[in-house]
Description:
By secondary structure, the chain is mainly α. It has helices at residues 2-17, 21-43, 47-50, 56-78, 80-83, 95-125, 134-158, 163-178, 191-197, 201-213, 226-251. α1 (2-17) packs across α6 (95-125).
Amino acid sequence: MWHIINALILRELKTRFGKNPTLGYVWVILEPMMHVLFMLVIFTLIRNRLLPQVPFSLFLITGMVPFFMFRNIVNFIMNGIEANKSLFTYKPVRPIHVFLARALLEGILYFVIFCILMITTGFFINYNIIPFNIVYSLLMFIWLVIIAFALGLLLAVVFYGRDVIKNIIGYALTMMYFGSAIMFPLWIVPNQMIDILAYNPILHIIELFKENYFETYPIVTQINIEYPLICTLVLLFFSLGLYYKKRVELGTA
Length: 253
């Protein structure tokens, strides 16, 4: 199975970055960097009051890059069947191979982007960017890949062929971006609002990632590990179950 996934990852790279891969790779890094720079300009005057514990630029990178990875994995998996129909005429290739290849590729790409941005920014602001807890930080990053894979797989199976709904889901992911405390620290938000935002499991994982990355990062009481863990297990159970039930139909699409 892994040789098929490896071949699919190479195909995805070629398809995604086209005849000018250098430009494509540069853009993948530039996109989150431009968001970070934009936010830095906006919040320059108030950043020290909001975030005395963590450099604001690093706060943005540790939120934006993991969320962009999550969003892209969901989108690419959700549209994976339509983009690879011709491959399913080859018996060894199944939709699950495409889904796994896309999740792994985005996970690796964004991990490299994250390291480049953190090292570069840390150098310029003279800040030690080594995570406070490396193992748990890495686990949180991988956790985001897994929950994105599970959600993308569920949406791909349930909404296969329903492009209008997929567009709506794209807008919902944008709303999730604003509700995941990417651009602002969660502790400045009123408790009643945090109670509502806490229904978003991605918020918990990203906050736990930051807590394990920065030694002095404060965490609000509404953030916990149990809720996103239950959400991930439920998503994996239903997405893999539905895929298994419809695998033949999806493979002959």
